[in-house]
Amino acid sequence: MSGLAQRHMAKNESWEACDPAAVDDVFSEPWMQEYARLWNVEQAMVTELARQRFSAVIGYGFPDCAAPKSMLVVRLGLVECAGRYDGRELDWDLRAAPAHWSRWLHQGIDLSTILVEIGANRFQIWKGDHKRILRKPPLVGALLRAFALMLEVRVQPHSDDDDPAASG
Questions:
Q1: What ranges do the domains of the chain cover?
Q2: Burial code of 33-72, b = ≥16 C-beta within 10 A, e = fewer?
């Protein structure tokens, strides 16, 4: 784990303590389920990821939180599991401030933007080898399509009444 990740983890015990309202339902359980559904019906992307033998546990979250908020478990291109992060070992841990996630999820993100955002530390890869992916053009295309799918996710607004963790 990088020093940056360790410093951020020292600040907060869990993501629940800093669940930013600025992105509302992004990375919520319903959001991740819909993202997984869209991912799995994107046949060209899934086929290419399978051809490249891409399998990974991908975490999504915010840099000021100890753990990612949510995750996808991808096996040979298909999402097998999506939802809240459950503590398992990650292959990828992708972090950005709520305002950046919000902007990208409304405006989109292309390869040059990803590279600029990584260079400016606005898009942080706490774990994972993005340079390996950049050396494989088919994986770059699949990565860009995966980000584009995020713009298509539509879920009903979340309320605390729907969240079992909020009651009690």
A1: 3-152
A2: ebbbebbbebeebbebbeeeebeebbbbbbbebbbbbbbb
Distance of alpha carbon 39 from alpha carbon 35, whole angstroms? 6
What is the second-level CATH architecture of the domain 3-152? 2-Layer Sandwich (3.30)
Confidence (pTM): 0.78
Query: How many angstroms from the chain centroid is the CA of residue 86?
Result: 14
- Taking CA atoms, 13 is separated from 3, 91, 110, in Å, by 17, 21, 33
How many C-beta neighbours within 10 Å does residue 14 have? Answer: 13
Q: Taking Cα atoms as reference points, which of 95, 76, 111, 133 lies closest to residue 1?
A: 95
Give pLDDT tens digits for 61-81: 999 999 999 999 999 999 999
User: Which residue, among 119, 118, 107, has the nearest Cα to 147 in the 3D structure?
Assistant: 107
Bridge partners for 90 per DSSP = none
Q: Classify the phi-psi angles of 74: left when phi > 0, otherwise alpha if psi is within -120 to 50, otherwise beta.
A: beta
pLDDT at res. 130: 79
